[in-house]
Automatic annotation (TrEMBL):
Top-rank taxon: Bacteria
One of the Pfam families matching this protein, by short name: Metallophos_2
Similarity comment: Belongs to the metallophosphoesterase superfamily. YfcE family.
Domain Calcineurin-like phosphoesterase: 1-198
Protein's name according to its UniProt entry: YfcE family phosphodiesterase
Species assigned in the record: Paenibacillus anseongense
Length: 239
């Protein structure tokens, strides 16, 4: 059984199409989606339509929550909240009422079992859409913040846009990175791949080439309200 976990598309439908094609070439049996579907990218509606067409389990990320109700004080630095809400309003305007209802009602956690292997997946932490847990967190911190709410063999999360895999006490922790906005300096989309066969587990981070210049052109073409900054992130894969 081969399972792909994707997340943090952020309205980058070009990157999403490239990743879905790579998943198909890898002959994955299942795709799970861990949130942040359409906010901060040039093609929010097309991105969301592509995700919904997968007919698979999708959970909510912080950016999906923001699309529905706006960015609130305390969730981002005060100096950027007004601009982020302008971006949110632009994204909101591109979606249909049914899209907004879909985002609002998304669950926040996936628990599944594959060939006897239990997998727990969430966007940021089991208890929060917003909490940041970085790759340099110590083992105790990772276990307490990410691996203590459910009894599983594999834990999968996203949110930080930096992919990594750690092995702790015989269990696997994977961050799948970002499809649309990687922050690790690698200008390629990322997703996580888990292969389970006869009780054996193989995990990997897949990196996929995307047409970054076309994405940057789209930010300009659609008159995105923060096009310059977002284009710089796409071009450099860094905030």
């Amino acid at each position: 059984m081969k399972i792909a976990f994707i997340s943090d598309i952020h309205g980058n439908a070009i990157a999403l199409e490239a990743v879905l094609n790579d998943i198909k070439q890898n002959k994955s049996d299942k795709i799970y989606v861990l949130g942040d579907l359409c906010y901060r990218g040039p093609e929010p509606k097309r991105s969301l339509d592509l995700i919904r067409s997968l007919n698979t389990e999708v959970i909510k990320g912080n950016a999906d929550e923001w699309v529905v109700r706006g960015v609130r004080e305390g969730e981002v630095p005060q100096k950027v909240i007004d601009l982020m809400n302008i971006e949110r309003d632009w994204t909101y305007s591109k979606l249909e009422p049914s899209d907004l209802a879909y985002l609002e009602t998304l669950p926040t956690e996936i628990n599944c079992e594959v060939s006897g292997i239990r997998i727990n997946a969430f966007h940021a932490t089991p208890d929060s859409l917003f909490e940041i847990v970085l790759p340099n967190e110590d083992d105790a911190g990772l276990q307490n913040r990410l691996m203590s709410s459910q009894d599983a063999q594999i834990y999968v999360y996203a949110h930080i846009h930096k992919a990594y895999i750690r092995h702790l006490n015989g269990k696997v922790l994977m961050n799948v990175g970002s499809v649309g906005l990687p922050f690790d300096g690698i200008t390629k989309a990322s997703y996580g791949l888990i292969e389970i066969e006869e009780g054996k587990i193989k995990t990997s981070i897949q990196r996929v080439d995307i047409d970054t210049e076309r994405v940057i052109e789209l930010y300009r073409d659609v008159d995105y309200p923060n096009a310059a900054m977002m284009s710089g992130i796409v071009r450099n894969a860094r905030v």
